[in-house]
Structures are given as C-alpha cells and as structure tokens.
Amino acid sequence: MKKKLFQSTMVFALALLLSGCELALFDSSGVTGKKIGDTILLTMGLMLIVVIPTILMSLWIPFKYHASKKDESYDPEWEHSSKIEFFAWGVPVVIIVVLATITYFTSYSLDPRKEIVSDKKPLTIQVVAMDWKWLFLFPEEKIAVVNEVAFPVDRPVQFLVTSQSTMNSFFIPKLGGQIYAMAGMENRMNIMGFEVGEYRGISANYSGFGFAGMRFKAKVTSDEDFEKWVEGVKASGQVLTDAEYDRLIEKTRDHKVEYFSSIDPLQFKNIIESFTGAQNGSN
Ligand SMILES: [Cu+2]
Fold this sequence. Notes:
The chain has 283 residues and is of the alpha+beta class. Helices cover 39% and strands 21% of the residues.
C-alpha cells in the first residue's frame, strides 16, 4: 500500500517535471528579464551549496550511526568539533556575503526605472489599469488600445503605469519586470524585447471579481510590423472621447481588444490628476 502511494507520487512528480510547463521567468525574451532570471538561478545555485550537503548528510548520518551498526564509534561524551564549527559558520557567512553583494548591485542595475541603454530612442507607452482591463495609450502615435500592446523588437520601451481604480500590478512574465499600478501615481518600467513574439500580459495583484480576465497580449514585432499595427489601430476610426473613457471605466469582465485611432495627448496626465488634483501648480 505504502509502496503504491510512493510510486504514484513519484509518477506525479515526474509528470510535473517533464510536462514542459513554460518557466517564463527563466527563459526571458527581454533584456532585463533575462538578467533577473540569471540572478535568481545564481542565488538558487549558491543556496544549494548548503541545501545539497544537508540533505545528503541527513540520509547518510542515520544510516552510518544506526543502533544496529555495532562496529561504528560510539562517543556519548562528545561535545565540540572546531572543524564542524568552522564549516557550519564559515560557509553560510561566505554565502551571505556573496548574496548580499549580488543583491546590492543588482538592486541598482535592474531597477525598473532605469532607462535601457540603446542607440534607439525609447518608445513611451502609458498604461492604465482599469476594472478589469488594461488601457494602453501611445502619446506620440496618438492611439489607444485595450488589452493589447505592441512594440518593436530591440527598441527600449518605457511604460508609464497608473491605475483608474484599485491597485494592480503590470506584468509581462516573458519580458521580465513587474510594477505596481496605483491611482494618482505614475510608476515607470523599462523593457526591451529581443525576440519577436506574442507574450502573455497579466495583472499580478488581485483586484476583485474580474481579475482573472484582466489579461492582454504583448506583441514584440519588427519595425515594419509595428508601423502596420499602428496603421491598423488608426484605421479603426474610433476616438477616445470622454464618453468612451467613461464607458471603459465601467466594470467589465474579459473585455475584448479595442482600438482607438485618436486620443487626447494629455489623457494620461488627466487620469492621474483626477485623483490628485492639478500637479505642478497649473492645469
Ligand atoms: Cu506605491
């Protein structure tokens, strides 16, 4: 009976391991995402220096010193070993020092606010978390899109993120980075995709009833395809008027993709200021 349970657990574990579920965080298609994934793997590796010997010893010691092993040394008065103290304290200290150094430097170098170095001009995309959909505003292209976003490959993108409602978290797992969306605030996240593709975008912060459907497609495209995509959005002929914006504010679930060919360039600023009042002392 026990053996059966053990076997089925192992089969289940193997199935999980071999199912090829996508480990997005460790297989990033974004510049910062790749560095974040590598840092996680490196820190995990460092911690295994302690974990693996501990697991092995927890098996080996009971085996070696089991009561049935009459010929092993038996020393009930034993209480100190400088050798054991040296390793038990020394190894963790070294690991902590190395981890602390890595953490210190990557906290700065992988700061999502930091602009990504590139000879191309960054593309600015404003993101508004709504109930329960994502609105993307392109202030330069003067277009807006709901639940879909596109940007060219190998070009840095600066996302400016706010919320029309409760707190949310803007997250494209395959491209790395995650940042909170809060009403009345602007958060920044810089991303650069280095692989053309269509990636899953989600909210990583539970925000109520329609949260599960608060998803978007992030398309990393060639420069030409990006132009085409913008043209396609512009061809929709739908203007993001105040009335349309009010319609988007309404709570909706599994909202379909919507294109707006024209927006007020100050829309994003106005959304933030609707919570804070006019900023910088002027309207
Ligand atoms: Cu905050």
